């Protein structure tokens, strides 16, 4: 049987005092939960801030190392074997080897290839080609170029930059110390009359940046050929740490300078180019994604004449350096020719 609903007046009601107690309890629980949540958020915020402060310091340190600490070089172990130098001499690839002490005490290793006519005649050498390798390689990188130059009556010096090959040191300073390392090597060799005193510096990438800086401090240098050089250590750091703001980049560069003990402002091919008193030939791949072509344009604009900028169409950072040994030899001989002329500055496309 269907029954009628009871009127509201007949619904049981809680006593007023009990309702108040329950409401107060809910309010108290709400307040307590809000307070606990606020404390939890505050504690989390403090932990996050502490983590950020510690993390920022850690990130600055790690990012700074990316600028000045070379990546592991698996080939370095083989290259530094005791018998490696003797083997190279026995195979007729080099004439001699040695080490020179840099101003800060770091030992810099080098190979020498005497001009081929030196053993058979008294023909005078055309000069000394100082060949400087890129980052993460060693003096063997340009060994084929050196042998071709020796065949064309050049003395050749191949140097292991600091923190590379058989040389000492743990840090790369992007030319700030390397330029003085090269000068120490040439000081020793010229004192021994081991090579010609007509020096022409040739380098690629890091080596190209160093070659320009060396040419600016050693008046004996008669010409520089630089292939795809970075304009400065700051430009290198900007490419590596592209997510950093300018302020953060400054902090990382400062720390990098502290780690490797050098002045960041002293590692600039652009500033060095302004001080050159010898001819400069710049070679750069137009498709270089590692060190963009604009770096050489900036250096070219800073350097006094005589100078040349040779863009390589369709070439990147790697192909600008390899598979063109004969052509690179020609550029070294071209800068020697520029040293005897007063040709104006030019931008010359490379022959296809």
Fold and architecture overview:
The chain is of the alpha/beta class and 352 residues long. It has a domain at 69-232 and 267-347: Alpha/Beta hydrolase fold, catalytic domain (Rossmann fold), CATH 3.40.50. 43% of the residues lie in helices and 14% in strands. It has eleven helices and nine strands. It has helices spanning 16-68, 74-79, 84-90, 143-151, 178-191, 206-217, 233-240, 246-260, 269-274, 294-302, 325-338; strands spanning 96-101, 107-113, 128-132, 155-159, 199-204, 221-227, 280-285, 307-312, 346-347. It has a nine-stranded mixed β-sheet with strand order 1-2-4-3-5-6-7-8-9, sandwiched between helices. Helix 11 links the parallel strand 8 and strand 9 (346-347). The chain is globular and about 120 Å long. It starts with 15 loop residues before the first helix and ends in a 5-residue tail after the last strand. 41% of the residues are buried. Residues 50-56 have low confidence and may be disordered.
